[in-house]
Amino acid sequence: DDSITLEIRVIRYGKRQYLLLARDVSRVQRLETMRRDFVANVSHELRTPLTVVYGVAETLAEELADEPELADSARLLRQQSERMKALVEDLLMLSRLETATAPPPDDVVNVAGLLQDLREDALALAAQSRHEVVIEAAAEVSLLGSEAEVRSAFSNLVFNAVRHTPAGSCVRIGWEVNNSGGHFRVSDDGPGIPTHHQARLTERFYRVDDGRSRGRGGTGLGLAIVKHVLMRHGGHLEIQSLPGKGSTFFCHFPKGRLCQSHLPNPSPVV
Ligand code: ADP
């Protein structure tokens, strides 16, 4: 298509003088669309073969249980193919979120119930690291939005808190509502995040300490997914963190996304 997109900026200098800057960003936009499509296509193509590799690795790991050396290799194969599968799933989810034109569905998300699920999932993940997971607040107010997206965003934050903090740490989660809206939050007593890294954390594959974070098993796309889910729901992510003092991640939602109960035909919060 031969339409062009202009980015316009008005800069004021002096009392009544303005500078109008117009930049043709059509090419940048077209490249961005190509990049997105390419990533989505590659991820989609990789999905099926990876599922096969993972399935075979799983069978091998079971069948070879009596042969220690081979079993180790099979387990490594299973672990790494599982990691690739998670990466491909996250890439697909992110590209779906980035390209979605329709607003999210208005499912009535029972957040108090979701907090219980998240706690159980996190405890299962942390079975060996003896993390504690505490629900600090669970308002009986539901959220209107995509249940699957909200669940995925919140669980990314809870899993991050478990993965990026030392064994035995305490993770606190909460859902609170006030006059202007509601927030879900996850706090930890982990290493914290230096201020200059915070603004970039939602970029794809941005990691504070690349080597260390990779070893912890995430895909590097968690916070990018969280950001897009919140944007689609009219909300935003806030990070409060100080090195050595732990981190708190807030998912803020506007009042219009809240409803009084999780029964059918919910009444809006007034
Ligand atoms: P990853 O899969 O690497 O966790 P994310 O996008 O979820 O990717 O997070 C990006 C980076 O932000 C992480 O690699 C880590 O450096 C940092 N991070 C996220 N959550 C925490 C946390 N609770 N405490 C400390 N650092 C964190």
TrEMBL record:
GO MF annotation, one: phosphorelay sensor kinase activity
Gene Ontology biological process: cellular response to phosphate starvation; phosphate ion transport
Catalyses which reaction(s): ATP + protein L-histidine = ADP + protein N-phospho-L-histidine
Domain Histidine kinase: 41-257
Entry keywords, A to Z: ATP-binding, Cell membrane, Kinase, Membrane, Nucleotide-binding, Phosphate transport, Phosphoprotein, Transferase, Transmembrane, Transmembrane helix, Transport, Two-component regulatory system
Enzyme Commission numbers on file: 2.7.13.3
GO cellular component, one term: plasma membrane
Compartments reported by the entry: Cell membrane
Principal location class: membrane
Chain's role: Member of the two-component regulatory system PhoR/PhoB involved in the phosphate regulon genes expression. PhoR may function as a membrane-associated protein kinase that phosphorylates PhoB in response to environmental signals.
This protein's name: Phosphate regulon sensor protein PhoR
Organism: Ectothiorhodosinus mongolicus
Full-sequence portion shown in this chain: 173 to 442 of 446
